[in-house]
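#help-structures

NK: newbie question. if I give both the sequence and a SMILES, will the prediction place the ligand too? trying with adenosine-5'-triphosphate
OV: yes, paste both and it writes out the complex. here, I ran yours:
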Amino acid sequence: MSFNLQVNQRLGDCTIDAAIQSDDRLIAITGPSGVGKTSLLNCIAGLATPAAGHIIIDGRTLFDSTSELNLPPDARGCGYVFQDNRLFPHKKVLANLIYGLTRKAESAALMSFDDTVKLLGIGHLLDRWPVALSGGEARRVAIGRALLSVPSFLLLDEPLASLDASRGEQLLCAIERIRDELNLPIIYVSHDRSEIDRLATTVLAMD
Ligand SMILES: Nc1ncnc2c1ncn2[C@@H]1O[C@H](COP(=O)(O)OP(=O)(O)OP(=O)(O)O)[C@@H](O)[C@H]1O
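OV: that's the protein plus ligand as structure tokens.
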């Protein structure tokens, strides 16, 4: 099974009570602003600890409150593309991209560096500083960096937010290819129903 998640968490006034099981390689999480979508991703990445539940991805248990198993973030193999990208501002795009790659055998890569750059259309940006990227360019670099880190699974938090229709369509096509060509479990967070209908058949609606 690709995903077997049950997460209970309380954050201030917000209570997360989420459960989903799916064999799909891409599942979507949707719901209104403030319902806890990002907090749920943080639990899956290991950046926050649920009060109770389990997180099992591709048969690998990352968290289980019953057996008190809680893998640290760097043992989870998570490629996390944050809403605000979080590129290293002091490294050029090329250095951001190879940051993860240099820590692992290049032969283990899901896709070669050149193919990743081509898929995301970022070849002309390699010598730029992050501060000189548009929102859509930075998002594509962040996805490239996550893919090149050879993740066991990918978390995409509102990846199309703040992009215009044409840039959004380009990125959606790239995500469809990642979904179809790489054998990688993906969790896609969005509040946009049309994006979700296009990408996912398994949807966790939080409310
Ligand atoms: N560490 C924390 N302590 C207390 N409350 C928190 C904490 N982190 C998040 N929250 C609250 O939990 C709620 C859920 O936040 P979260 O960012 O997960 O929502 P979201 O569904 O991703 O929203 P958006 O769609 O706007 O990004 C919010 O009310 C937020 O203020």
